[in-house]
Amino acid sequence: MVNTKTTKDKILHLLKKEGSLTVNDFTDRLQITHMAVRKHLTILEKDDLIQSELIKQPMGRPIQSFTLAERAEYFFPKSYEGISIDLLHDVKELYGEDSVQQLFNKREERLTKEHISRMEDKKPSEKMQEMVTIQNEKGYMADLSQVDDYTFEITEYNCPILEVAKEFKIACRCETEMLKKVLGTNDVARTCCRTEGDNHCKFLVKFVPQPASSLVEV
Fold first, then answer.
1. pTM of the model
2. Cβ neighbourhood burial of 196 (10 Å; 0-12, 13-18, 19+)
3. Hey, what domains does the chain have and what are their CATH numbers?
4. What single-letter DSSP state applies at residue 2?
5. Which of 17, 150, 172, 210 is a good FRET partner for 197, with 20 to 30 A between their CA atoms?
């Protein structure tokens, strides 16, 4: 079987296993020159994937040691969704379907409470911009388009909880309800959904036009 890992991959995997390594360590393990090792380490450090520190020695000059930076964790496999789905199925089996509903309702309440304060004193268009910002902070890759003064469409190109939502459709319903409460309008319709085979999730949001304030003569 051909090893298709790049030198960058090999360096990151070595650090994941060993914790910290020096240039000499990499040279021995990768069987490449000091110059080549330092070239790769410089690029990885510039990309914030590794970090270095000088380790004092009993004799001689300090040695530069390299470790993984926090950002490098994204390169290693994670199975959060798998664990979440398994746990939700366990909760359902132990305590019934209502308990799963309560968990998602609790999540909806928490997110609503977190986001609604960011909507204070905002016009509909400003609320929508802020909502898209919030969704992007959570990894939804959301875009906003405006249909008219009081109608908007949110398109979400990514769903961070897609596998969970496929198993438990209530996740989608709770997200729609959260949008209604945070945006302050009951007219929020999910027009496309990735759990139903669509390429993206889309929401059509309508606000009730506010009457102009009447002038009071004194």
1. 0.66
2. exposed
3. 7-75 (1.10.10.10), 80-206 (3.30.1380.20)
4. -
5. 150
Three-state DSSP at 64 gives strand
**Is there a contact between 172 and 190 (Cβ–Cβ < 8 Å)?**
yes
For the beta carbon of residue 3, count every other beta carbon within 10 angstroms.
7
Contact (Cβ atoms closer than 8 angstroms) between residue 15 and residue 21: yes
Each residue's pLDDT tens digit, 45-103: 999 999 999 999 888 889 999 999 988 888 887 667 777 999 999 999 999 999 999 99
Please give the order of strands across the beta sheet that includes 21-22. 21-22, 63-68, 50-55
Three-state SS for 138-193 is CCCCEEEEEEECCEEEEEECCCCCHHHHHHCCHHHHHHHHHHHHHHCCCEEEEEEC
In degrees, rounded to 5, the angle at the alpha carbon of residue 120 between the alpha carbons of residues 115 and 124 is 90
